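Shipment paperwork, digital attachment
Item: protein structure file
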Amino acid sequence: MPRKDYILLETERLVLRRITMSDLDNMSRINGDAEVMRYIGDGSVWTREQSEARIRRILTVYEIFPGLGLWIGEEKSTRRFVGAYALIYIPKTVEVEVGYRLQKSAWGRGLATEGARALVRYGMFELGLDRVVGLTHPDNEASRQVLLKTGLQPRGLGRYYDKSLCYFVAEKINFSAFATPDKPPMTEIRRR
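Attachment content:
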């Protein structure tokens, strides 16, 4: 079990924590699943070596950009792996993107929305970001729905990662409806 200081957030059903090299098997499994990877990057599955290299890069992100990175999602009740959630800078921009990549057994349960909403709230109210964006492939209807339920608003298409992607934005001034005290989307355990 990871150290407590690796835990970032807790929601009703999830624990989001820092990724470690011990997550390589789980990340290799979802990164090697063609259905999971269909709309990620160029749609190619990753090798174990590519997954390992990505984890090593993310470990440096935690140091370079405190509060940002890739967070492993685990079911709170069982601590079983669900997938990965991200709050990261989009390369060559000043935009911070929320993302998620879940194993198929977690699909359709609202876990993508729950984790993404917690990260957007964390980014705005803990890190002081004024906005967080979401990007998705135009054909990925499920991801568009997650971003809408998370509280992001569609703003058309944008050119990111060398492709045309649907562009969504959450601004702190408008996001407060998703983070009121009477319906908090997450409880902070420890901020790093």
